[in-house]
Amino acid sequence: MKNDELTALKKDAARYRYLKDSQNQPCRDWSSEEDDMDIVGVIDNIFICTSHYSATSPNPEEFDAYIDCAMLLFPNK
Question: Using 50, 70 and 90 to split pLDDT, how confident is the model at 60?
Answer without folding.
Answer: confident
